[in-house]
Fold this protein.
Amino acid sequence: MIEPWPKVVGPTPGSRWKRVHLIGVAGTGMSALAQALLDHHVEVSGSDRLLDRGEAVPVLGVLRAAGVQLVPQDGRGISPDLDAVIVSSAIEPDNPDLVAARQRGVPVRHRAQVLHDLTAGRRLVAVAGTCGKSTVTGMVGWIFEQAGLDPTVVNGAGLVNWRRPDRVASVRTGGSDWMVLETDESDRSLWMFQPDYAVLTNVSVDHFSLEETCEVFRTFLGQVRRGAVLGPDVARALQLGQGPWHTPAPDLPPRPAQGGVSFRWRGVEFWVSMPGVHNGWNALWAAALAELVGVPLERSAAALCTFRGIERRMERVGTLRGAVVFDDYAHNPEKIRVAWTTAREFGRKVLGIWRPHGYGPLARMLEELERTWPSVARDGDRLLLLPVYYAGGTPGARVESGELAARLTARSMAVELVADHAQAERRLRELVTSDSVILIMGARDPALSQLARRLAESG
């Protein structure tokens, strides 16, 4: 049985908050929250290990330009007059800033608790699911904006349409009472929210066993007040009874079209520029949710035609010697399978790089990963495996990338270990041909995106 999420919140981040500090501010969720708090006229400081290491991570520059005061993660930035120190589930108990906050009597709040407070008095749309939730959240937010609903949006990844050098692209602060929010099942913090409307894209193994995952999402759906859009297999997987559930079925299913994907639903033709059949389904769910709140399908279709995609979600960053370069967040078997299959639409052979995002996740997914790659790889494909990305904390089971490489080799998959990003880049430059497609995959490690852009910039 999964323990319930503690629904204890502190002071709200409205007019009563003046100064807060975010630990791990460069993370996708924390950087978005920093931007949202800035938009609420809160003074924000933040620290991050990447800053202390001197790594030139683009999001740090954006945060600094947006107005976040960046300080070392050594406790010195924690002053007693802070209204709160904000953490995510990734922050360890011995983090210097967290220790300093407790010693100096500064209230500590979880990121989800603060997001919960930001939803007070709003009509909330919450998006959940094992895969696709950042894309669907972005699509819903974009449709709402284009339809004149003027929403506030807090997403787990940036919208290309909203990208600016002085603002985190995963946040839009609107003037209406509509709010669109990506929720997180990895720490069960989605239980913090009682949304008016929801989207649940799919259910598969990632952070928990399948049985535990079903329990997490079933509890979430039980808190939805008015209506929810479900992916095609969700109701069966969760064994749902009667409820305000909507499972849209297209007239013509998603299919590749003009570098993106198209489908027809209720006589309306949809097209979105993001490649991959899965993004057609994401668009369908977003349009179905928008219809629930009164947005006509024709208006959603027009909005999606101008939707330019999500950062690191099959993001096409350029080409290298005629080979398209994609940057993608894929970190679990289902996302890897979808990304690899989608990449093949753009080249005869897929040259992929993947970096596991932790020792624990690699250990949990090892057997399924061993089955995933041979099921999608073809002759000429090659996978380069980087070492596990270790961000600190207690590593637990130390399964290394070499174990996965050995298993894939035994299944006749063309795979090789590379020591670092520089070696990976050299090997890709040696292997690439004009009929290739390059796919950079992995979560957490910001250097992966930088690698993708170096490859693309060199043409």
User: Anything to note?
Assistant: The chain has three domains: 19-115, 119-305, 315-457. The two ends are 52 Å apart (CA to CA). The longest strand covers residues 349-355. The domain at 315-457 is CATH 3.90.190.20 (Protein-Tyrosine Phosphatase; Chain A).
